[in-house]
Amino acid sequence: MTAVIETQALGKRYGHVTALTDCTLSIPEGRVVGLVGPNGAGKSTLLGLVCGLIAPSAGSIAVLGNPPAASAAQLARVGFVAQDAPIYGSLTVADHLRLGARLNPRWDAALAERRIRQRNLDPRQKAGRLSGGQRAQLALTIAAAKRADLLILDEPVAALDPLARRAFLQDLLDFVGELGVSVVLSSHLLGDLERVCDHLIVLASARVQLSGDVAQLLGEHQRLTGTLPGFDRLPAGTEIIHAEQNTMVVRTTTPIDGADRVDLEDLVLAYLTRAAGFDGAPMLAEAQR
């Protein structure tokens, strides 16, 4: 299957600060990818590299089979919505659609106009007077009407209320179904990611901690709860991701009696906690005595 994003040992430095290092990914087409990590983990840097807004300091990256921003044709294949849903406050909704049509050779005017009607956006309304949810919907409409092959969304729902977030994410799924577009969605809101994403990337400390299809990753992880002396009898090859008190999250393809399934939040928090330096190693050593 063709990879929409392929990186090898990708890195980015700003002076003496490492924003991203040794990032190797292969993201298949047709996925809705959840990109998650704490502030400063490198999420925006990775998205900037994918969009061609910044150049790498090390390694390589291909987007849709080509270097990012290699040509006008390549730029037309990637849509981007930043966290603040950037729009021009002095322009009307209709002005934004006309601007989109002038700047994007693959512009789908019918799709844009249909979306504006469905979301009850007044074409005469100036964008600066729209609500946060309406601005996000306008930004998503413009990105979708660009008819890109890849949509990059950097925290697009961070400032929205729960109802506006739900509407935005449902529309995103509708676009995926209608247009066959691949999506990378950066968010701190794990519940939202669990609703819409089928592929996951966890970034922390400027490194990829975990990457893969969500269903497969959830199937490979289990949560054990009990007394620590029982934790030393794990199947061969089991990787302990995180342990605290009497709970442990492990990675193994072998079913463990009494273990529970993990959800996306369990999975992400286990890897983020390990990356922060709390890997449960002292507890494991105690359990194996």
TrEMBL record:
| Transmembrane annotation, as ranges | none
Which InterPro entries does the record associate with it?
A: AAA+_ATPase, ABC_transporter-like_ATP-bd, ABC_Transporter_VariousFunc, P-loop_NTPase
Sorted alphabetically, which Pfam families does this protein's record hold?
ABC_tran (PF00005)
Record has ATP-binding as a keyword: yes
Q: Name one GO molecular function term.
A: ATP binding
Report keywords, A-Z: ATP-binding, Nucleotide-binding, Transport
Domain (ABC transporter) spans: 5-230
Matching entries from PROSITE patterns are given as: ABC_TRANSPORTER_2
Name of the featured protein: ABC transporter ATP-binding protein
Q: Which organism is it from?
A: Dactylosporangium maewongense
